[in-house]
Specification:
The structure is a single chain. The protein is an alpha/beta fold and 274 residues long. The chain folds into two domains: 37 residues; 214 residues, Glucose-regulated metallo-peptidase M90, N-terminal domain (Cyclin A, domain 1, Orthogonal Bundle), CATH 1.10.472.150. The protein has twelve helices and six strands. The strands form two sheets. It has a four-stranded mixed β-sheet. A two-stranded antiparallel sheet has the order 3-4. It is globular and about 80 Å long. This is Protein MtfA.
């Protein structure tokens, strides 16, 4: 009996060892693949897909052209991620605002759109989302804001009025939701070590290095293409770049192909899909 127990333990240890070696091998191959191709080996892998109701999907279709460009299989993945993200975050209203299902869908779909080319999309750096009806006063910064991300509290804050304004005009290159979610992604890439976070962080550094190029910097100054706020600091520059990338990709690519290609690599994002 004792010999049998020892044999079982040895088998279990061997199975565990093989499992560890397999996981390490996959991780290594994943990083090698990322090094050469600048993207994860795979993005979508789910055991059971969650599905939106007819009315919920209709809401998304009416507001996200990105969703409508996806094929049927990709739309199922989008729906699954949307529901999962929405269930993972805490939504809280402020100053009499009401958190409805549509509010949760709108905010969550924005995050899913920006992370659709990434394997890890839940963004652990974010836990709470606060929504005000309009511009609000922040006791932390002691200023009025339309939106902000607080890394210490893991909290994202929006003025709903200005959130909606960002989507009202899809070609003005100003979108509060996209801008603030990129700040979440920036912080998340600094704290996490998954493949998508690594790619995001590495490419962000490459984008900053492009700014050090004398020729590119001169073109930035001459064209005055990006709004002045982009040059506040490197974090704001990246957030503004993604706003332009999402809302006017064709013009952006024509004017600054170097930045366009890096943003596309960073998000693993193809504007005709992902």
């Amino acid at each position: 009996m004792e010999g049998f127990i020892i044999a079982i333990l040895i088998i279990l240890l061997l199975v565990a060892l093989v499992g560890i070696i397999l996981v390490k091998s996959i991780s290594l191959f994943d990083h090698v693949y990322m090094y050469f191709f600048k993207r994860p080996i795979y993005i979508h892998l789910y055991f059971r897909l969650k599905k939106l109701t007819y009315e919920e999907e209709k809401f998304i279709k009416n507001r996200f052209s990105f969703y409508n460009r996806l094929n049927a299989k990709q739309q199922k993945f989008f729906q699954h991620r949307l529901i999962t993200f929405m269930q993972d975050k805490s939504f809280e209203a402020r100053e009499g605002f009401e958190i409805t299902k549509e509010v949760k869908l709108y905010i969550s779909a924005t995050a899913v759109m920006l992370t659709f080319g990434m394997r890890d999309f839940l963004l652990p750096a974010l836990q709470k989302i606060f929504v005000y009806p309009d511009i609000y006063y922040s006791t932390i910064t002691q200023n009025h804001h339309k939106g902000e991300f607080n890394p210490r509290l893991k909290a994202l804050v929006f003025s709903w009025k200005h959130f909606l304004e960002g989507f009202a005009d899809e070609e003005d290159n100003i979108n509060l939701a996209i801008h603030e979610f990129i700040h979440v992604l920036q912080i998340n890439s600094m704290k996490e070590s998954d493949i998508s976070a690594t790619i995001f962080a590495d490419t962000s550094k490459k984008l900053v290095n492009l700014l050090l190029n004398d020729e590119i910097r001169q073109r930035l100054q001459d064209t005055k293409y990006f709004r002045k706020y982009a040059f506040t600091n490197r974090f704001e520059f990246l957030a503004v770049l993604v706003e332009y990338f999402i809302e006017s990709p064709i013009v952006f690519k024509q004017k600054f192909p170097e930045f366009y290609s890096k943003i596309r690599e960073m998000l693993n994002y193809n504007f005709n899909g992902y």
